[in-house]
């Protein structure tokens, strides 16, 4: 154990298991208020339990940062103990959970496209037999975080370089060049990359792009001038439909819009979705179930994601890949 913090009196006995579970919730969410909501407690109770835990251990388990509470070295060791407590409770109640279904809150982050087209229908189907399961989806495009405060798992583009986490390859998706039929009628469809380079580009904001793999299209199209750019891929789709220029779009998103025309089909880029999850989170039945549901959904949708099949969650042929 770390030396006793000089700001504390001598440790006051063994830590309380409930206090450890409260710390675990704070470590997951990063905030007392969110941990309180998840545990069905109030903010004051969470604060009191953390104080009691620190008193029993004789040192701080959390430090405040600009992005919420972070674990100290002692806090990380305490969370390992809390995970063991949670696993033991889960084992004791597994039979009951099987009869009642999975319950709890699972929070994940993923890019806009896969969040809407794959993850949302996958977890909706999972909830049909597990109505007490709550899945929170944070739509964002970024690298996997080394410190996954507040998240049970992350889905990112490009192979992540992280430690102390399971990294699972989910599947590929394809980017292609698209323009609206109206834009093509007014400007003529380009027949070469040289002609594409003279056209305005609809894509991510270059200065704000955090994912190296998503920068590859700009290497394919060097010097192409920006038109409408955004951190949100749905903006790319709708700006392209509004004739803002040529969009480098996921083919599975463009496929549902008959007013989009694919240009130079040989100009394409395939990127890979990866899932990042801590091993201790996988021990939680709710997290494990959501991971399985997402993996199954991506596998089922793989032809759709690369523009070679219909959307399996809509049951209707895709349109707009002419």
From TrEMBL:
<dbReference type="InterPro" id="IPR036388">
    <property type="entry name" value="WH-like_DNA-bd_sf"/>
</dbReference>
<dbReference type="GO" id="GO:0003700">
    <property type="term" value="F:DNA-binding transcription factor activity"/>
</dbReference>
<protein>
    <submittedName>
        <fullName>DNA-binding transcriptional LysR family regulator</fullName>
    </submittedName>
</protein>
<dbReference type="GO" id="GO:0043565">
    <property type="term" value="F:sequence-specific DNA binding"/>
</dbReference>
<dbReference type="InterPro" id="IPR058163">
    <property type="entry name" value="LysR-type_TF_proteobact-type"/>
</dbReference>
<keyword id="KW-0804">Transcription</keyword>
<dbReference type="InterPro" id="IPR005119">
    <property type="entry name" value="LysR_subst-bd"/>
</dbReference>
<feature type="domain" description="HTH lysR-type">
    <location>
        <begin position="15"/>
        <end position="72"/>
    </location>
</feature>
<dbReference type="GO" id="GO:0006351">
    <property type="term" value="P:DNA-templated transcription"/>
</dbReference>
<dbReference type="Pfam" id="PF03466">
    <property type="entry name" value="LysR_substrate"/>
</dbReference>
<keyword id="KW-0238">DNA-binding</keyword>
<dbReference type="InterPro" id="IPR036390">
    <property type="entry name" value="WH_DNA-bd_sf"/>
</dbReference>
<keyword id="KW-0805">Transcription regulation</keyword>
<dbReference type="InterPro" id="IPR000847">
    <property type="entry name" value="LysR_HTH_N"/>
</dbReference>
<comment type="similarity">
    <text>Belongs to the LysR transcriptional regulatory family.</text>
</comment>
<dbReference type="Pfam" id="PF00126">
    <property type="entry name" value="HTH_1"/>
</dbReference>
